[in-house]
Amino acid sequence: MDFLLDSFAWLQETLYEVVVQPIAFAAGQGHLLEKAYEGTGWVVVGLLQIAVMLVVIGPLQRLWPVDAQTHAKAVRVDVLYTLIHRLGLFKLGMFFTLDYAFEQGWGVLRGMGWPTLHLDGLWPGVTDQALPGFLLYLVVFDFVHYWIHRAQHQSNTWWALHSLHHAQRQMTMWTDNRNHLLDDIVTSLILSTVAVLIGVGPGQFVALVAISQLSENFQHANLRVWFGRIGERLWVSPRFHRRHHSIGIGHESHSQGRTVLGGSNFGVLLPWWDMLFGTADFQLRYDPTGVRDQVEQGRDYGSGFWAQQRQGLLRLLGRA
Predict the structure, then answer these.
(1) Run of H or E including 103
(2) What is the model's pTM?
(3) Looking only at Cα atoms, what is the longest distance across the chain?
(4) Under a CB-based contact definition with an 8 Å cutoff, are residues 45 and 91 in contact?
(5) What number of helices (H) and strands (E) belong to the chain?
(6) What's the rounded Cα separation, in Å, for the pair 12 and 141?
(7) Summary mean pLDDT of the chain
(8) Could you read off the pLDDT of 32-83 as tens digits, one per residue?
(9) What phi and psi, each to the nearest 5 degrees, are found at residue 255?
(10) φ, ψ of residue 289 in degrees (nearest 5)
(11) Is 228 left (phi over 0), alpha (psi -120 to 50) or beta?
(12) Distance between CA 310 and CA 288 in Å, rounded?
């Protein structure tokens, strides 16, 4: 573990000194060096994630694919989404637009006496240790993420944005970050708020996000894999999550003889919440993915990055 931490620190320091720091000075942003160093850590995490995707998940997709990849452009657009997020461009945009307002807001709340819960102190001698504390935060984060995901599927307004993620007919390991930017902003703000409220440290937050993202890359892979009867109930598999993306199944429910928003398999890392709240579907099937109105009515979700972002805004406004 020490070797891994030291290696990560060396990569972060090297990238910062060789690339990021000179760019910051050249842009006249020397006063932001602390934030630039923090951002460099996120870039290193993203580069490591992409390396694992290319070296591990990619070959698995070629060995055990669910379906043939016949639309290369659709996959290339998903690659662009992934690079925007994993190479720090999305976080850079958040920093220059909403980060200051977020910090000022928390300053006001702190002044009003809002406390930090510090969940890792719930069980002294256990949860205040590194690994148990991290696992506690992971479970809490996943619980919050489950309800965010359900809200994305049960609110017509939020679904107008989130449906972009489900409109991919060629799911691969790159599909995880295929989201409308407004959808990502809302989710990011909620999770960052929860992190501050429950006392997640900066290093813990990076690790939580990194593990979640890499697991989600694996879940979205074009991969005919499941974890067995027991494993499927311990961690979200590609089979479990593909069911969530299945046309007319994963994002729809039936109520009083009509189809409504809803669905199944909302768990991000853990299927426990789906099991607890009655939204789990463990059928061992690999169905086509997409959105019903896209397939049956030819609804346009956009073929390129900017077209997809535009169509999402139009859906949000009720004009598409």
Answers:
(1) helix 100-111
(2) 0.94
(3) 63
(4) no
(5) 16, 2
(6) 26
(7) 93
(8) 999 999 999 999 999 999 999 999 999 999 999 999 989 999 999 999 999 9
(9) -140, 120
(10) -110, 155
(11) left
(12) 25
